[in-house]
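Incident review: delayed structure delivery

Summary: a single-chain prediction request sat in the queue longer than the usual turnaround. Root cause was a stuck worker, restarted by the on-call engineer. No data loss occurred. The affected request and its eventual output are reproduced below so the record is complete for anyone auditing the incident later.

Affected input:
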Amino acid sequence: MADDVRNYNAEARSTDVFGRVLCSAREQHFVIDGPPWNDCPAEALTPGEAFLAAIAACGVELVQVLAARDEVEVGKVHVSIHGVVEPDSPVRKDMTVFNRIRMTFTIGDVSEAQAAALVDGVARRCPLYGSVAASAGELDVDVQVV
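Output delivered after worker restart:
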């Protein structure tokens, strides 16, 4: 296997509660609940929320990694993300994808040019971000410096 190949593995299984799923990745275990519109508990994160949180986490982590690689000191990094699915107005007829995704990167202690370059690096490197960018009807990314 080539050194630059990145593998990701996860598992999910049903539980005794309808719509509640036990997920595992490596030695980490967590619960995801289906959303209320599917008559599921929605007490834990839903799949959509977990997916969006993973994109945001990838953004924060990669801003830090890319800044360190480029020897740019960054302050606090915050990524917020909001996704909308409109079942009555699908982007595609063959599968459900997000109609709109809005992301806001807030990066401390860098110039606007440095922040923009870091976020561009995230777009080029994060497979979750890339998957959403390639499929969502609209992707709006805002970069703020504090």
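Verification: The first helix runs from residue 47 to 69.
Action items: add queue-age alerting; document worker restart procedure.
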